[in-house]
Amino acid sequence: MSAHKAKQAGDQQAAEELKTRFVYQDDEELDKGFDMVQVKRLSHYMKPYARQIIPIILIMMVVGAMTKLLNPLLIAYAIDHALKNGDKNALLLCVGVMLTLYIIQWAANTYRIRYTNMIGQRVIYDLRHHLFSHIQRLSFRFFDKRPAGSILVRVTNYVNSLQDLFTNGVVNLMIDCVQLAGIIVILLLYNWKLGLAIIITVPIMFVISTKLRVKIRRAWQVVQIRTARINAHLNECIQGVKVTQAFTQEKENIAFFDEMNKDNHYHWNRASTLNQSFGPIIEVTGAVGYCILFWFGAHLIQTGEISIGLLVAFATYIGHFWEPINRLGQMYSQMLIAMASSERIFEFIDEKPNVGEKEDAVDLPNIRGDIEFKQVEFEYEPGRHALNQIDLSVKAGQSIALVGHTGSGKSTIINLLCRFYDVTGGSISIDGHDIRDVTISSLRSQVGIVLQDTFIFSGTIRDNIRFGRLDATDEEIEAAAKAVRAHDFIVNLPQGYDTEVQERGNVLSMGQRQLLSFARALLADPRILILDEATASIDTETELKIQEALKTLLAGRTSFIIAHRLSTIRHADHILVLDHGHIMEQGNHQQLLEHKGIYHGLIQAQYRFLKETG
Ligand SMILES: Nc1ncnc2c1ncn2[C@@H]1O[C@H](COP(=O)(O)OP(=O)(O)OP(=O)(O)O)[C@@H](O)[C@H]1O
């Protein structure tokens, strides 16, 4: 095999492998058929404004359409009477009336557009607010099933795609129907033969407009999807640039990006070519209409059936045909997209939180922190047990360490205690209250959680600590930071507590982020504290700091710690050893060591590791 062929085969294989590596799922369905249920649900959002704004819009709409329809008749009158008889006053009067009609039309359109935009923006605001607040309350199960990108797209792009429909679409549809019907009636009234001859072009224009518009719109949507894929890939490559460079995968990433870029370029060209074909096709159809008018119109003038003024008026009406037909086509394709978008939006809005609140749920009173797990069972997916028959009784103020191999069910216990998921069997109670009988907010406000992957929001350090309790004063924030030994590193930052950190806190070290999250939890002052210890090795000094901070944080609280550090495990009041969702062993450090079971093995392994790594 030649070197060139070998290279080609290699490239091909690499491309095949990449196909499975970068997979970005998009909503490929671009539009949907007309669906009355969706229309009803969408129009529900217009209801609050229907009484105040819609009547104004309707009046403006009728005034605008009427004035537009009258102008060609005035032109006909001016030509056939004022001009023919040399009546300067009548001509002046015609021009004056025409000018007045234009001014009225301009004012009516300006106000109509202003009000339709207002209503459209409000509806979009309400819809986006509704969707976002609903998503915020959805359970973990919902987020488990969906990539963040697909959720983002619904709140941004899909809601945006309804914007046109609400701002101009519905009103324009009515205006266009009124205008088109008005023109057809006038044409038939003034001369039905000539009227009919010209109206033949309407269906032709309409078919071209709707069919071609839908095609063009689809082509642009494909471009949008391709661009979204490029964005997703870019995002992944930027987030993972360190790993990419460490594994020297730059070439592969570039190759994949080039493929996407080429694809995007091809679809852009296609959409652009289709777009350009639209104008000429419509112009030719319009020209056919004019040809019919002048040929047949000239004949009718010769036979004395119509005047020259009427021919000019008809020619003006043909000019007015195009605008509504064009917009109806636009509206039709907008409607199809809106159907698909609204279906996806309502699919989320209809999603019920899996963890619901009972109708008669009561607020959990201030708790001491006694916790009881009775025969708790849990499955993330039907048939796959994540926890089996967990029985556990914790006294207020005790610290419980959860240990076990990866996937043994430690996080699941915590997820259930916070009611991020509901048990599928058995029950969990706090101070004797079944957690399914109390309101979720009253439960979670008394349970603090410090996750291993500490989330830092964009804002200042102070804002991030205040997240624990929004009404905390600056003094309370500093006191919390001091208590968990975070104060020293914070004051050494360029702007101290006012230092801006970005999302995920990239400027902070792992240990610093943990201390910040301790301060946040301390400020919230929950009776029950859950802590997922960071596994990353940190230097001894920080480790000591964290241990001291932990002592402050845990004092007097019931705590559950997913423990990785030996120091934490050893000091816990009670240790649960989990395996495949079962409690295999439990007791304190000494008891479990003497038992010489799984725990003993884990501790031995950790000692060996610490010894080997120095
Ligand atoms: N969101 C989820 N959907 C489906 N299955 C899940 C989900 N989260 C966890 N699991 C499964 O449930 C089991 C227990 O997982 P869990 O996260 O509780 O383990 P863990 O002991 O906390 O592990 P680790 O120490 O690695 O964090 C595992 O088999 C895991 O694959």
Automatic annotation (TrEMBL):
Membrane topology: Multi-pass membrane protein
Transmembrane segments: 53-78, 90-108, 170-190, 196-214, 278-298, 304-322
One Pfam family recorded for the sequence: ABC_tran
Domain ABC transmembrane type-1: 56-335
Hydrolase in keyword set: no
CDD domains cross-referenced by the UniProt entry: ABC_6TM_YknV_like (cd18545), ABCC_Glucan_exporter_like (cd03254)
Entry's Gene Ontology cellular component terms: membrane
Single GO term (MF): ATP binding
Superkingdom of origin organism: Bacteria
KW Transmembrane (keyword) present: yes
ABC transporter domain ranges (all copies): 371-605
Alphabetical keyword list: ATP-binding, Membrane, Nucleotide-binding, Transmembrane, Transmembrane helix, Transport
Compartments where found: Membrane
Protein name per Swiss-Prot or TrEMBL: ABC transporter ATP-binding protein
UniProt source species: Paenibacillus solanacearum
